[in-house]
């Protein structure tokens, strides 16, 4: 028996939703040739990553094996699948493969940061094959909420793996290829070793609905509104939805305006690559000013409440010369991703203050998910009929439920979270190794490790405030003048009603008056002592222990 | 015509959900005698109020009119209605009135902070009347998700106002009084001037369901699980639900354990005040260790993912000697309040990691809301038949929708948000005045205004990091040594790969070498110059402008 093995290693996306990055390898242990599937980002939040711009998978393990990477394959152009390619390009440098629409978006990302376009090689859909190292990889079309989404058919000497990518089973997706069960049956008929599969909607028990079901409802809504402007927001990358919205507007006698950079870029990319052929003509925001409000429909970015997107700006005031008012209608043709509720609700209330009527998807009429529900996942499993199921693209609870479902259906399945290397070579999956994984923060223009302490310090300052203590010691190590304190993020006065910094300075002075020479000579001891005094005084005066930075200057 | 007027002024709860505080007044303008209805809190979040412990309404307006306040009436014992009484007691000092269960909870709150119990006067339900100043106030029972919730019947020389409090129309609430339509008809038959009404569920289009509907479903679920421990979480104050859960457990042959301080306190208060008469017997966590896992049911706090509550601790590890594992079942008999999703999902995934099956209310079987849905709100309006409707307890969008509904039903209605004083004297409501309102943060043990800049500084530090610059100048105003920098919450190295503080120090030194005497002599000018240099260097090196604190020490 060969000692070569086929491995699967998620570095992101398994045990979380977001930041997808999966590795496959084939070869002798520790000498496997590698391919990477997707390199996505996830978005920061104030609770855990304040000030951070983007969150990337930690690719240390890959960088250390850089010379063994034969290619990076991107399944589709959502940020959580393609967003990290430009931020990891310097370190990985491997060729990137994608279908035309995805490649168009990927190239724009690389270009923006000054990297060469030709880092991305365009591949057509199955049956075209990309051969890299021991792998033959094909892009098998599957429906999702973005054009040209693909599953990957990954062939190695140890058999065929189907990596589902993000998917739903939509036979009428409006834009892009319908799900083609016959093609899938054909691809899978000679046996599939493993299906690595999207788990997002495993808890949704009814079959998913087609993109085609929302059009009539949206049209009914837009037609029913005759007063003012109609605004609709959705993910710009959901080109089919944007088209549905635009067509509904046109049929209701409205001119279409696209607002927000991503909205224009996605439509542009769709037209350039031919995935979108008959998008209604649009007018510019400038021309829109000449059009009566009841003949306008705005399609805008910011369905998740993002602060700088068009939705937020329209809710806040003017944007590109447009201003909403009483009589206008605002449609969220979208679902709020958990964690984004506050931002979305803020916008809804700002719109309400302007007298704008807001319609969201609580009725279930104006949005459908891009992910397969539980019965669809079962159906895909039945079509692919894999030896092993490896759930991915899900939090722990989704992966666990997906494993339970698979086992109930009589298949071998494994719960693999980020960092668990799975050996797929045998008849059952085996955990081969645990790799240290994590998150890298893009912070301004630099990358910092999530565990470097940088963001931890920010969170502590935001919870506890910050006190600065400066002390000057003379040549004899005696305090020169009094210690000086400044605070940031703390109440001015405490319970005693004294000014807080004066309480700190008084307590520090008293301590320094009593301190022995040994203490005063040792920076570390002195610093720690001063910090403790301030933290204790904080606890007494304001009921919280602030963060403290002590700067000791010595005159020698 | 009398120049006396009847006014309504929300200080919290109108234009938001939380922090309820409503004022009614009667008398000559600026000499009205006042009553306060509810004094609640709202909860902080990392996005807008990091480090804050509780958010209270800004009661400055009330404090300035302290001698005109005749009483504080608490409708029910939820934190957003009663939570601020101990934090405002020193400043207001007015007598507090409540029904027995609410008074029990309110007194515990006052006692904890050393205030006298007798600040709270117990009133029985309608037809008992409390007379204070020009007002006669009665507590009219209405169902909600806590025992002894009441609407207030507020009579003044200008007629009767019904303040709904939080309510649902539940004729089988299991604990506490059923909604009694006949009593309400009787109270309202002689005409109601204004109905000030809960708006929370105005967007829920189907009639609300009774608390009695969840019991059979919960029992079915608990009975279906025979492996390990069953844990259920809900708001501790939802005593009816806690009882339903406990009874389901007992019927399935399980002993009940209450975990979490609030859970034990609420049950204790319910039994003390007689609202809960036949709660199943419970066992202590210590005794529970002797009971087989399949005979245990834990009822625990923390349905909203609160970090220190029993749910979070059980998800994280051990709590009170109990530890969950494979085969256990965890039921969220609750709805996640918008904004709390991340915390709840974190717990669900931690439980999944332990192999615990999690059931939430996505099926709609295990929870019902405590608030009236749209048809129920309409029904109450029809029963009360008020001249004027004043929506409260809602965000702007809820209040606006509620006003629209009321007008559609042919009633006069007014959208009054916090700070809008409404004159209810005439046939239609009039805005009498705009009062400055806001939020007060309880931060550790002190109160700070939301606009004082304290929390703004914390947020800035958490977004941008913090740089400390210290500079010592000699008697001739010349730098003594080099400037010194320390950073907190910033990457160690920038794009040039140099150490960040060294870049700052180098740039500062260069500037100081060129600076003229005038600059060096003026603290303000020098400080601003140093700050700008650090911010610019930050932008260049790490792509972000940090917060900067400059400390200049002069040797004279």
Summarize the structure.
By secondary structure, the first copy, chain A, is of the alpha/beta class.
In total, how many beta strands of chain A?
Answer: 28
CATH level-4 homologous superfamily of the largest domain in chain A: Ribonuclease Z/Hydroxyacylglutathione hydrolase-like
| Main sheet summary of chain A | 8 strands, mixed
What percentage of the residues of chain A does DSSP assign to strands (E)?
15-25%
Q: Quickly give the CATH architecture of the largest domain in chain A.
A: 4-Layer Sandwich
Oligomer category: homodimer
Radius of gyration of chain A: 28 Å
The CATH topology assignment of the largest domain in chain A is Metallo-beta-lactamase, Chain A
Q: Give unreliable regions of chain A as ranges.
A: none
What general outline of chain A do the C-alpha atoms trace?
globular
Number of domains of chain A: 3
CATH class assignment of the largest domain in chain A: Alpha Beta
| Overall helicity of chain A | 25-40%
User: How are the strands of the biggest sheet of chain A laid out side by side?
Assistant: 8-7-6-4-3-1-22-23
Overall pLDDT level of chain A: 96
Most extensive chain-chain interface: A-B, 66 and 66 residues
- Main structural class of chain A: alpha/beta
Rounded to the nearest angstrom, the distance between the terminal CA atoms of chain A is 73 Å
């Amino acid at each position: 028996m060969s000692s070569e093995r086929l491995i699967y290693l998620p570095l992101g996306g398994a045990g979380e939703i977001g930041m997808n990055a999966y590795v496959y390898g084939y070869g002798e242990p520790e000498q496997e040739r590698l391919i990477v599937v997707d390199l996505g980002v996830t978005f920061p939040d104030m609770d855990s990553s304040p000030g951070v711009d983007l969150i990337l998978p930690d690719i240390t393990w890959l960088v250390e094996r850089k010379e063994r990477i034969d290619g990076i394959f991107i399944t589709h152009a959502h940020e959580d699948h393609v967003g990290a390619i430009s931020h990891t390009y310097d370190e990985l440098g491997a060729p990137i493969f994608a279908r035309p629409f995805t490649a168009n978006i990927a190239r724009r990302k690389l270009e923006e940061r000054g990297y060469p376009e030709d880092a991305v090689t365009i591949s057509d859909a199955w049956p075209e094959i990309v051969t890299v190292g021991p792998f033959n990889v094909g892009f098998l079309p599957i429906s999702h909420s973005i054009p040209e989404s693909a599953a990957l058919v990954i062939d190695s000497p140890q058999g065929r793996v189907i990596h589902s990518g993000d998917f739903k089973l939509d036979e009428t997706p409006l834009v892009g290829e319908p799900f083609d069960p016959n093609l899938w049956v054909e691809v899978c008929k000679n046996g599939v070793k493993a299906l690595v599969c999207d788990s997002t909607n495993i808890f949704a028990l009814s079959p998913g609905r087609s993109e085609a079901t929302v059009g009539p409802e949206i049209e009914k809504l837009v037609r029913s509104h005759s007063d003012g402007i109609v605004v609709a927001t959705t993910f710009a990358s959901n080109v089919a939805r944007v088209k549905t919205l635009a067509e509904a507007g046109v049929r209701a006698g409205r001119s279409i305006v696209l607002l927000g950079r991503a909205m224009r870029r996605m439509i542009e990319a769709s037209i350039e690559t031919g995935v979108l052929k008959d998008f209604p003509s649009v007018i510019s925001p400038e021309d829109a000013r000449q059009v009566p409000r009841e003949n306008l429909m705005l399609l805008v970015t910011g369905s998740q409440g993002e602060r700088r997107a068009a939705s937020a700006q329209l809710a806040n005031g003017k944007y590109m010369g447009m201003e909403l008012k009483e009589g206008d209608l605002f449609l969220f043709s979208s679902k709020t991703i958990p964690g984004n509720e506050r931002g979305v609700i803020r916008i809804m209330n700002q719109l309400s203050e302007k007298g704008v009527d807001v319609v969201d998807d609580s009725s279930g009429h104006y949005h459908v998910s891009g992910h397969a529900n539980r019965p669809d996942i079962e159906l895909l499993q039945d079509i692919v009929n894999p030896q092993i199921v490896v759930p991915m693209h899900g939090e722990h609870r989704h992966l666990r439920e997906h494993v339970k479902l698979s086992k109930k259906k009589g298949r071998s399945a494994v719960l693999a979270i980020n960092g668990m290397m799975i050996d797929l070579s045998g008849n059952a999956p085996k955990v081969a190794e645990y790799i240290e994984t994590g998150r890298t923060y893009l912070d301004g223009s630099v990358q910092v490790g999530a565990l470097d302490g940088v963001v931890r310090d920010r969170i502590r300052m935001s919870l506890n405030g910050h006190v600065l203590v400066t002390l000057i010691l003379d040549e004899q190590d005696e305090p020169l003048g009094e210690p000086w304190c400044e605070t940031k993020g703390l109440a001015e006065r405490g319970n005693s009603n004294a000014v807080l910094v004066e309480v700190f300075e008084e307590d520090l002075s008293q301590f320094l008056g009593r301190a022995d020479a040994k203490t005063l000579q040792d920076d570390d001891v002195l610093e720690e002592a001063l910090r403790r005094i301030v933290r204790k005084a904080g606890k007494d005066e304001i009921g919280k222990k602030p963060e403290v930075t002590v700067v000791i200057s010595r005159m020698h």
